[in-house]
Design a protein that fits this description.
Blueprint lengths: L1 E6 L6 E6 L2 E5 L5 H10 L9 E3 L5 H4 L2 H8 L3 E3 L1 H6 L10 E3 L6 E3 L2 E7 L8 E7 L5 E5 L7 H6 L5 E5 L4 H6 L4 H8 L7 H11 L6 E5 L8 H13 L6 E4 L9 E2 H15 L1
Parallel strand pairs: 3-4, 4-5, 5-6, 10-11, 11-12, 12-13
Antiparallel strand pairs: 1-2, 1-14, 2-3, 7-8, 8-9, 9-10
The structure holds zinc ion (2 copies).
Length: 273
Amino acid sequence: MRVTVLGSGSRGNAILVEADGVRLLIDAGFSGKDLARRMAAVEVDPESVDALLITHDHGDHTRGMGIFARRFGTPLHLTPTTRRACQGLLRGDEKVTEYHSPSPFNLGPLLVEPFLTLHDAVDPVAVTVTDTLTGSKLGVATDLGRPTTSVRAALAACHILVLEANHDDALLWNGPYPWSVKQRIASSHGHLSNRAAAELADELYHPDLAGVVLAHLSDSCNEPAMAHAVVESSLGARSYRGLLDVADQDEPREPIEVEALRARLAPAQLSLL
Ligand SMILES: [Zn+2]
Ligand SMILES: [Zn+2]
């Protein structure tokens, strides 16, 4: 399984997952043109994308979905409620397949398991994606609100996590947003702080966790180095040796070869036995 965060933050989100020649794009929060530019940067032809899955109706996840689906003939996967909420982006000639959380479904070798979150969208879901050929499991855990017991259970045993680290608490409360926006972001229906991300990373840690990519960072209330440091100290206490990366708003990150990452960690784990 190969995972590429094409971009993540308050201004747009898109993650590409590939396994055995099947390509799944999770969210399309950039313009169609910008999505194509980002894919070109990692040498992926947009026409080769087999499915586009939308997690919820917020613009930073849906902006380019209609244009992308029409231009490249990509089948769209979204829940019926999110489909209704996104009518303005659709013309009716897209190939749409509705999915229902929490019913899992397959896209070639990829097993997609959606689950409900508390985020303040009309029908917010997060997903895990498992490569059934290798067993590698990705958890996309952004726009979480408060991570409920069922969300934490759904994210258990992931080998790679794209984990929301939206804001630093002090920067949020001292920052430029109106009071109501600050309250919304920090609420149980908003976004995870760096501290909350660190706690969730600690809870989700297991010896086969090979990669954590911090994502959905706020432009004005966070710094990549701050988010990295807070989660690094939390995972460091668990002797974590995997990748810890921070997603970028404007450019794709290096593709992550999940099995290679897992193999790199395996010898040390075996030597502990
Ligand atoms: Zn959202
Ligand atoms: Zn978002």
